[in-house]
Design goal:
The complex is a heterodimer. Chain A is an all-alpha fold. Chain A has one domain (3-141). Helices cover 76% and strands 0% of the residues of chain A. Chain A has helices at residues 3-23, 29-47, 55-77, 82-85, 95-106, 110-141. In chain A, α2 packs antiparallel against α3, α3 (55-77) runs parallel beside α6 (110-141) and α5 (95-106) runs antiparallel to α6 (110-141). Chain A is globular and about 50 Å long. Chain B is mainly α. Chain B has two domains: 3-111, no CATH class; 118-256, no CATH class. Chain B has helices at residues 3-22, 27-40, 80-96, 100-111, 118-135, 141-163, 168-188, 196-206, 209-221, 224-251, 253-256; strands spanning 45-50, 54-60, 66-72. Chain B is elongated, with a radius of gyration of 23 Å. The model of chain B has no long low-confidence stretch (mean pLDDT 90). The chains are: A mainly alpha, B mainly alpha. Chains A and B meet through α1, α5 and α6 of A and α3, α5, α8, α9 and α10 of B.
Chain lengths: 146, 257
C-alpha cells in the first residue's frame, strides 16, 4: 500500500470515528481522545503489516493496544474505559468482510461464502479477545475504583 | 440503616442500574456498581443478577427479612455521556453515602443529560458514509457525494422512525432498503460505476459493530446470558440489513446479477 492511501485511510478513520463519537454522545475532550484513538488504532494496523501479515493477529494486537489506551485514559480522565475502548475500534469493525459474506451467500457461492464467513468471525473474535485480555489484566493488577 | 431506608435505597439503586444498562453499559459494571453501593451502606447479603433484559436484586437484612426487587430493561441505545455520569454518581454514593432524596435529585439530573441535536446526528451519518467511502478504497468524487447523501437519507430515516418508536429491526431494514435502492438506481443509470464501496460505506453506519463487540466481550467475561441475548439481537439486525440488500437485488434482478 502506498503512502497516499495510508494517509487517506488514517484521516478518514479519524473522521469516521469522530462521527460515531457524536452518534454515541461522547462529549468534550473525551470526544477528541476517542477520535484520535480511532486514527491511531488504524495507523498501528497499517504499520504492523510488514511484521504480522495475518489480519486476525493484527486485529488482536491493535485491539489490545486500543484497550490499553482506553484503560489508561479512563484513569486519567475518570470515566469508564468503555468510552474509548469500543469507539477506537470502529475502523476495524469488519463491515466490508460482512458485506462480502452476504453477497457471496446471495450468489450461492459457497466457495467464497464459507471462508469469508470464517474470516469475519475470526476478525470479530480477535477484536473482542484483545479487549477481554487487556481488561482482565487491568482489573487484576491495576485495579482501582473506576 | 433503618429498614424503610434500605427499601428506598434498593428502589433507587435499581433505577440507576436500569439507566446504566439502557445506556449500553457492560453487565459486569452494572452488577459491580450494585454490589459496591450495598457494601458501602453495610448491607451484607446483597445478590445482584443483571442481564440485558432484566435486573434482579435480592437483599437479606440483619433481622432476617428478605427483599427482592426487579426491573425490566427497555431498549438499549448507546449513550456514553450518560454512562459516565451514572458511573460518577455510583462512586459518589459509595464515598459520601448520599441519602435517598439526594440520590433522587441526582437521578433526575442525569435524566436530563444533553444529547447532540438530531440535525447534527443526521449530518454525521452523511459524514461517516463519506469518510468510509474513501476508507474502503473509493476514489471517485461523484460517488463520494452520493455516498454522503445516502448517509444523510438513512440518518433522516433513523431519526424520524426513532421518534415514532418503530421496531429497530424495521428501522435497519428500511434504511438498508432505501440506501440499496438508490445506489442500484444510480448504477442502472450509469451515474456511478461500482456499487460496492458506497454500499459498504453506508453499511458501516447501520451495522451493529458495537453490539457485536459488546456481546462477545460479555460472553468471554462470563456473562453468558447477556452475551447470547446481545448476539442474537446483532445477528437479527445484520439479517435485517442484509434483507434490504437482498430485496433490492431481486427488484433489479435481471439487470445486474
Amino acid at each position: 500500500m502506498n503512502y497516499a492511501d495510508m494517509i487517506i485511510q488514517s484521516v478518514t478513520a479519524l473522521v469516521g470515528t469522530l462521527g460515531f463519537g457524536f452518534l454515541f454522545n461522547i462529549r468534550g475532550k473525551k470526544l477528541v481522545f476517542a477520535a484520535v484513538g480511532g486514527m491511531l488504532a488504524w495507523m498501528l494496523f497499517l504499520v504492523l503489516e510488514p511484521v504480522a501479515e495475518s489480519e486476525p493477529l493484527r486485529y488482536l494486537i491493535v485491539s489490545a493496544c486500543s484497550t490499553t489506551y482506553a484503560e489508561v485514559l479512563a484513569r486519567i480522565l475518570k470515566t469508564p474505559a468503555t468510552t474509548f475502548s469500543i469507539i477506537t475500534l470502529i475502523p476495524l469493525v469488519p463491515g466490508g468482510a460482512l458485506y462480502q459474506t452476504t453477497t457471496a451467500a446471495l450468489d450461492r457461492n459457497t466457495e467464497v461464502f464459507v471462508p469469508k464467513l470464517i474470516y469475519t468471525i475470526e476478525l470479530a473474535v480477535a477484536l473482542s479477545l484483545g479487549i477481554v485480555i487487556v481488561t482482565a489484566i487491568f482489573r487484576r493488577f491495576v485495579h482501582k475504583k473506576v | 440503616m433503618k429498614q424503610e431506608d434500605t427499601y428506598r435505597l434498593l428502589s433507587k439503586v435499581l433505577e440507576i442500574l436500569k439507566m446504566m444498562t439502557e445506556a449500553g453499559a457492560e453487565i459486569y459494571r452494572v452488577e459491580e456498581s450494585a454490589s459496591r453501593i450495598f457494601a458501602a451502606y453495610g448491607v451484607k447479603n446483597a445478590d445482584v443478577y443483571a442481564t440485558t433484559s432484566n435486573i434482579i436484586v435480592s437483599l437479606e437484612l440483619d433481622d432476617g427479612t428478605i427483599k427482592t426487587h426487579s426491573r425490566r430493561i427497555g431498549s438499549i441505545a448507546t449513550d456514553i455521556e450518560r454512562i459516565d455520569r451514572l458511573n460518577s454518581l455510583v462512586r459518589r454514593i459509595c464515598e459520601q453515602k448520599l441519602d435517598t432524596p439526594q440520590i433522587d435529585k441526582e437521578i433526575e439530573y442525569i435524566k436530563g443529560t444533553p444529547t447532540y441535536p438530531t440535525i447534527v446526528n443526521i449530518l454525521f451519518y452523511g459524514i461517516i458514509a463519506g469518510a468510509f467511502y474513501f476508507f474502503f478504497g473509493g476514489r471517485n468524487i461523484v460517488e463520494l457525494l452520493f455516498s454522503a447523501v445516502i448517509g444523510l437519507i438513512t440518518g433522516v430515516i433513523t431519526a424520524l422512525l426513532g421518534k415514532a418508536n418503530t421496531n429497530k429491526f424495521m428501522v435497519k431494514f428500511l434504511c438498508s432498503l432505501t440506501a440499496c435502492l438508490i445506489i442500484f438506481t444510480l448504477k442502472s443509470f450509469s451515474v456511478v460505476t461500482s456499487v460496492d464501496n458506497i454500499i459498504i460505506a453506508n453499511i458501516m453506519t447501520l451495522i451493529p459493530g458495537i453490539g457485536l463487540t459488546n456481546s462477545l466481550r460479555d460472553l468471554f467475561v462470563g456473562d453468558s446470558v447477556s452475551g447470547i441475548l446481545r448476539l442474537i439481537e446483532v445477528a437479527l439486525l445484520a439479517l435485517a440489513i442484509a434483507c434490504g440488500y437482498i430485496l433490492t437485488t431481486f427488484i433489479f434482478g435481471g439487470v445486474l446479477l
